[in-house]
Specification:
The chain is an alpha/beta fold. It contains 13 helices and 10 strands. It is 44% helix and 13% strand. The strands form 2 sheets. Strands 1-10-7-6-5-4-3-2 form an 8-stranded parallel β-sheet. Strands 8-9 form a two-stranded antiparallel sheet. A hairpin with a 2-residue loop joins strand 8 and strand 9.
Length: 347
């Protein structure tokens, strides 16, 4: 008999689309709870299986004392999801900083009802491997940890296979977001999970340059096969309905021995779109404004402003967004948004 009341962990292990939620501001650069709710309603109705809040896309500046938004944002999102989302909707909170800050944020997230903490290790990148493992263990004693391999070129740290071996021995690890933008490093994580025998660690893609290929690949090694089952992605913070439909199609395609070759074309199209939205040409400076600009054009948010007034669209980025809209209409979900926007907008 099918489980009529699946848990968040079952959803996570099955593979879902988890948008990395942007913070929504209004024209005076203050946080809008009303429009934040609109965005959350959009994600839930799009069929997303979870939300990540307090992550890079939510803007790290929410932690600065002058804004002091980390706890208020996490609590507001969780309370809104209590109302809008099913019980198995996965709630992930971004956690960063050295151990004192990270454990404090983990406690805040746990108290707010989050299921897991996406643990950034950027602040630990100059520490020895065993010290990083000890840091992870401290956080995991408070909340289930969603590991995160962030590419070193944008602030992450090189985490070799030996680290992931040790990481997989830590209790209360629930998933890993693989986002080094490097196939060698991606395989380090997948292999470590496979060799650990940890069936309870779900693999998620964050490799924005190879999303579809990550999700389609059967990683086979020594008689085992594992899939990267879903994605926790800033890319999926926009055009979310289309992203959910794509993930569902990929999960169906994985059941067959042969794949249509057009999946390779779709992977390149999504990579091209992501390069523009995330502003790869300018070292990702315009990545958050780029996502907000798409949401603004759809009417889901009122502005593309960020807490940092210098965080704006890069020269030519708006025109490039026009281009990818015209080139890849199947990646977008504007018709879905137009149909439902009146229901989602603040009163």
């Amino acid at each position: 008999m099918a489980n009529t009341n699946p848990t968040w962990k079952q959803s996570l292990d099955d593979g879902v689309a988890i948008p990395a939620m942007p913070l929504v501001l209004i024209d005076d650069a203050t946080w809008s709870r009303q429009y934040q709710r609109t965005l959350l309603h959009y994600y839930v109705d799009s069929g997303a299986g979870g939300i990540a809040a307090g992550v890079h896309t939510t803007q790290f500046a929410i932690r600065e004392p002058k804004h002091n938004l980390y706890k208020p944002v996490l609590e507001f999102v969780s309370q809104t999801l209590d109302e809008l989302a099913p019980d198995n909707f996965v709630r992930v909170a971004g956690i960063c900083g050295k151990t004192q800050q990270a454990t404090s944020e983990a406690q805040t997230a746990a108290n707010a009802g989050y299921h897991a903490g996406l643990l950034s290790l950027t602040a630990m990148k100059d520490e020895a491997e065993d010290a990083i493992v000890a840091h992870v263990r401290e956080v995991a004693s408070i909340i289930p940890v969603f590991g995160f391999y962030l590419q070193p070129t944008i602030g992450g740290c090189l985490l070799p296979y030996s680290f992931w071996q040790k990481f997989c021995l830590i209790e209360n690890i629930t998933a890993i977001k693989v986002a080094p933008f490097n196939r060698y490093h991606t395989w380090d994580v997948v292999r470590a999970v496979m060799e650990s025998g940890r069936e309870d660690i779900a693999l998620y893609t964050g490799n924005d340059d190879n999303i579809i290929n990550d999700l389609l690949t059967p990683f086979t090694y020594q008689g085992q096969t594992r899939y990267i089952v879903g994605g926790l992605l800033g890319q999926w913070a926009v055009w979310t309905k289309a992203a959910v439909e794509m993930l569902n199609a990929i999960k169906s395609a994985r059941k067959h021995e042969k794949l249509p070759i057009d999946w390779l074309s779709k992977n390149m199209a999504l990579t091209d779109a992501n390069a523009i939205l995330f502003d790869a040409a300018h070292d990702f400076h315009g990545c958050i404004p780029g996502l907000l600009e798409v949401l603004r054009r759809q009417g889901l948010v009122p502005t593309n402003r960020c807490l940092d007034p210098n965080e704006i669209l890069s020269p030519g980025q708006a025109q490039e967004i026009d281009r990818i809209y015209q080139a890849y209409p199947d990646l977008t979900d504007d018709a879905f948004v137009r149909k439902n926007l009146p229901k989602w907008l603040p009163n």
